[in-house]
């Protein structure tokens, strides 16, 4: 089975809107795991997915400070039909969002110390 134009368009769309995710928490979630698992994909599609997963692991997906927790983008799997992975995705998303908000708050917080 060859990779369809639609699948290539999804990856192209993601690549084109990537700048919008700069310095923001991001997850890559593979949905519909009840239909097909990544390891069961045809080779061409599996290679595209592996390339994207490698970018996520090496910090080449979003522009973020190299010391930031945002550099690495977790790749998660889920199925809303079987509910496999749904809770894990929710927890990860909430933890990353909360962590990002705390970090941003601390970074922008002004210290009001008395001047002597």
From TrEMBL:
Top-level division of the source organism's lineage: Eukaryota
Family annotation (InterPro entries): P-loop_NTPase
Listed Gene3D superfamilies: P-loop containing nucleotide triphosphate hydrolases
Protein name, per record: (diamondback moth) hypothetical protein
Organism in which the protein naturally occurs: Plutella xylostella (Diamondback moth)
